[in-house]
């Protein structure tokens, strides 16, 4: 086992929150892979629920209809950071959840308290059973879902940087066709507003979260920074538990 992994305790829970395009998914996957942890993309769960509703005739603009359907689909997440999976009622949802239709509807669906209660329950049970620990990324992980996480990170980035990153992804998805960056930026701002202003569990930095502004950092620099923070948090957790902190090379 490497010195890096040996610095983590038996179980370490890391919460990474922030708005779209700040680097949550890429950072969380890389950190989890590097430290031998599991990985959960909670946005994918909300997107899978939204996709299932759109394809099962639920009027996603009607919170009562959405609430009534919230317990119906089975949502399964595979937590291998090298190959995460997401399915709804057994159907692979990884492609369809990235369509513009799902992106446009997901904030409304995820604002419905019954949806949040259902998915929060799934998230807590996945985190509780993750052997060795897990990196969970989303909007309300540090503030609501896992308030006792060993480490909470809140990623931010300037709106132009976020739009440029999302625009790059959309361009690849469109086979290299140019993307309207101003429209991408507007879409992000609208989703930020909806996600931050909903009543139940809005997008919010937990009081004890470490904020990392990724605007001027490469992805590699962000990953390095978060890995260092996880190792420090793991050592603090060990010390608090009364055990001597592991030296490099010790398990
Ligand atoms: N620090 C960074 N610098 C440049 N590009 C980044 C950085 N972090 C992430 N990206 C890229 O930006 C895009 C969005 O990142 P992603 O991890 O999906 O963000 P989020 O999960 O917060 O929406 C991806 O294409 C990713 O490779
Ligand atoms: N913990 C979470 C995660 C996502 N959501 C909602 C709000 C987000 O706009 C959507 C989609 O999240 P996702 O992380 O996939 O979004 P991006 O990849 O950043 O575009 O889900 C949420 O309400 N709570």
UniProtKB/TrEMBL annotation:
<dbReference type="GO" id="GO:0005737">
    <property type="term" value="C:cytoplasm"/>
</dbReference>
<dbReference type="Pfam" id="PF02224">
    <property type="entry name" value="Cytidylate_kin"/>
</dbReference>
<dbReference type="InterPro" id="IPR027417">
    <property type="entry name" value="P-loop_NTPase"/>
</dbReference>
<feature type="domain" description="Cytidylate kinase">
    <location>
        <begin position="14"/>
        <end position="231"/>
    </location>
</feature>
<dbReference type="GO" id="GO:0036431">
    <property type="term" value="F:dCMP kinase activity"/>
</dbReference>
<keyword id="KW-0963">Cytoplasm</keyword>
<dbReference type="InterPro" id="IPR011994">
    <property type="entry name" value="Cytidylate_kinase_dom"/>
</dbReference>
<feature type="region of interest" description="Disordered">
    <location>
        <begin position="164"/>
        <end position="210"/>
    </location>
</feature>
<keyword id="KW-0547">Nucleotide-binding</keyword>
<dbReference type="GO" id="GO:0006220">
    <property type="term" value="P:pyrimidine nucleotide metabolic process"/>
</dbReference>
<comment type="similarity">
    <text>Belongs to the cytidylate kinase family. Type 1 subfamily.</text>
</comment>
<feature type="compositionally biased region" description="Basic and acidic residues">
    <location>
        <begin position="164"/>
        <end position="174"/>
    </location>
</feature>
<protein>
    <recommendedName>
        <fullName>Cytidylate kinase</fullName>
        <ecNumber>2.7.4.25</ecNumber>
    </recommendedName>
</protein>
<dbReference type="InterPro" id="IPR003136">
    <property type="entry name" value="Cytidylate_kin"/>
</dbReference>
<feature type="compositionally biased region" description="Basic and acidic residues">
    <location>
        <begin position="183"/>
        <end position="208"/>
    </location>
</feature>
<keyword id="KW-0418">Kinase</keyword>
<keyword id="KW-0067">ATP-binding</keyword>
<feature type="binding site">
    <location>
        <begin position="18"/>
        <end position="26"/>
    </location>
    <ligand>
        <name>ATP</name>
    </ligand>
</feature>
<keyword id="KW-0808">Transferase</keyword>
<dbReference type="GO" id="GO:0005524">
    <property type="term" value="F:ATP binding"/>
</dbReference>
<feature type="region of interest" description="Disordered">
    <location>
        <begin position="72"/>
        <end position="96"/>
    </location>
</feature>
